Request: fold
Amino acid sequence: MIIKDCFKDYNDKAISKVVPPEVTCRRVLKKLNNLAPSILAYYIELRTQLDIPQIRVVGTDDYQAFARSMGQNGKGHSRTQALASGLMELVERYSCGKYLKNGISLVSSFKNLELKGNPFRLEDILKYPRLTERKAKKELETAKISWYRGYTLEEEEVYIPMNLIRYLLEGSNGMASGNSFEEALLHGICEVIERHFIALIEERKIKTPFIDKTTVNLPAARYLINKAEVLGQKIYIKDFSLGFGMPVIGVIRKTTRDTCTITVGVATDRDEALTRALTENSQVQGNAEATRKISLSGYHFLRNKSISMQDIPNIADSNIRLEIERIKVLLRKQEMRAFFVIATDKILNIPCVYVYIPQCKFSFPRIEYRNIWMGLVLESLVVKDNAATRKYINKAGQNDKANQAIYSFYRGIYLRQQLRYSEAIRSFLNAGKAINRMTHLEPVERVEIRSFAIANLVLCYQATGNTGKVIGYLLNLSEINPCFSFKQLRSYFSAGLAAKERKLFDKVFDLYQNVRALRGKIALKKAGSSLKVHKYLGTR
Reply:
């Protein structure tokens, strides 16, 4: 039995956990302090407009190598809970990223595994409009891709293409850590459900009931609401559950006459769901994914029935196993099923999972351009199939004209790995020039792809002995993306590295650290007046 009885011994009404947040902080900090190389650089308390606890937990380059981010923001109704939140998010991103890199169980195709009775089918990843290109679907059916051993909530063993799912659909959605495996699994399921309902409501512009704020009895929630309203920012609370049967609560904070931020909280307990939505809302000020123009989101404000907070169903229990069972029943009623992999890092030994529910909707504007052709190229690089990489790049170039810059970039990766540096340089230069013309990409995504193209140019110029170009592009990289990590590049595009290439990474990494450290000192000096650094762990 994988999912076992697991009891929550801490409940302050706003959150319920296996252990109190101060115990989580103490345990996790001890494990992070003992980890070598270290993944935690420091954490800082942020001063926010609403003065609600928020802590930025910053990772080292060894963290960024797997997590693809510089750090995480922790939030909560108390400072200790905010720190616990940030630390656990750091752990989940690191553990899941490392697992996807090193935890591949087998390389096979959808067709071969379906013949062997694998419960995960091709249609479980092709339920989304942008993943329906006929020629690409046919290729994906027989392509050799990476698979990870996982389970269904019925505890049936299954192989899941989590790396492909992460790239095409989920990003970090569904990654979760916990004080126990069951706590992590519950959190991951709730996160995927949360994204599903906000995506569904906004795609279909569904009117949803308001929740009468006067029926909110939880002191912590009333305190958080008051923090916004004393600043003249109106708070709306909404029932986003669409009759699903568990608390899915939306919080809309009107920040200006035509701007609002929308966040969602999902939990088995209604008060906990509301607290999550409120604390998340305090964190996302200015965040593009959460910010809406009221003039374009009028359906959220249309007159609709108002219900009491007590009308929201509760499915909470002190035993997390029973809560998961109840969600499983609700999913089954909707003809939905959840898959998950256990991504706990063996050294940290902090429970982590990665959850995927095929029928759920996802709303990540940043990755909406990604399609099966790109996934095929990426997977061929992951499984080190050079012939497949060449084939998919060529076919993608013929069938996906709008994204030529992406395939120029991947062609450069392939050529660099073959030590064909002059040809690789041409591909990366072409990708860098063309990426700015891809206006269908989110600006942040264009910056990331340009950053990877520049970083690869640095490696190629270092290999060919062009020191001037190396320094010039390193300076350029530190300007457009100060958070970029060469260890991240090495981790995700290092399949089949020759000894010569490994030495290149080491040399360039040292050079880049010097450039970035100089710029970092300048930036920290400028920001010092608004940041309070609570702890510095350094790197080993």
Remarks:
- The chain has a mean pLDDT of 91.
- The CA atoms of residues 45 and 55 lie 4 Å apart.
